[in-house]
TrEMBL record:
Residues 6-208 form the Phosphoribosyltransferase domain. Its EC number is 2.4.2.9. It comes from Coemansia guatemalensis. This is uracil phosphoribosyltransferase. Keywords: Allosteric enzyme, Glycosyltransferase, GTP-binding, Nucleotide-binding, Transferase. Transmembrane segments: none annotated. Pathway: Pyrimidine metabolism; UMP biosynthesis via salvage pathway; UMP from uracil: step 1/1. Belongs to the UPRTase family. It is an enzyme of class 2 (transferase).
């Protein structure tokens, strides 16, 4: 599907292999998620539009300045999405940050919203949703629906590890959303867990497993 961009960068694949390792400390998980996030954000920002800012001065001459033309927002899905926020913020330093609190109910596997402080009126042209995992896709779908209802014109979704079932369903249902992912795993088990996956990313990031 054209709206699924799977990174082919060899360092992404190496870091995914390292991230899967069960013996990692929380610090190692945070560093690996951050490193993968930076490589994914590079790909996710390649098509940003530029506008000129007029004549500027360098130490040895003049030049035409440039800046990103449109307004962006970073939307980490609590809590594991925070693991990607520093990387995304370094790429888009002027972006707004809006947190969405969503979790998957363990019995039904359905998303539950518990935090949403989006401004009443949409104030940006593009949102980058940040969440390391897409399993069944329910939480990701809830976030997309919230942002579309808010009125954001363009959504990009940055995820580290996704299930094939979940990502293909989302990509088909939301063709206007582009998904930037590090790895697609084929197995989604009966408990809604991606196999081999990367485990519960929120627990691993925060040492609460």
């Amino acid at each position: 599907m054209e709206n699924i961009v799977v990174s082919k960068h060899p360092l992404v694949q190496q870091k995914i292999s390292d991230l899967r390792r069960v013996s990692n400390s929380s610090q190692q998980v945070r560093e690996l998620i951050d490193g993968i996030g930076r490589l994914l954000m590079y790909e996710a920002t390649l098509d940003l539009e530029l506008t000129t800012t007029g004549e500027e001065k360098s130490p040895v001459g003049s030049y035409t300045g440039q800046k990103v033309a449109k307004r962006q927002a970073l939307v980490p899905i609590l809590r594991s999405g925070l693991g990607l926020l520093n990387a995304a913020s370094d790429f888009l330093q002027g972006a707004e940050v809006h947190h969405l609190g969503l979790f998957r109910e363990e019995t039904t596997l359905l998303p539950v919203e518990y935090y949403n402080k989006l401004p009443r009126k949409c104030s940006v042209d593009e949102c980058f949703v940040l969440d390391p995992m897409i399993a069944t896709g329910g939480t990701a779908e809830a976030a997309i629906q919230i942002l579309q209802s808010w009125g954001v014109p363009k959504i990009k979704f940055v995820a580290v590890c996704v299930s094939r079932e979940g990502i293909e369903r989302l990509a088909a249902k939301y063709p206007s959303v582009t998904f930037f992912v590090a790895v697609v795993d084929d197995v989604l088990n009966k408990n809604g867990l991606v196999v081999p996956g990367i485990g519960d990313c929120g627990d691993r990031l925060n040492n609460t497993a």
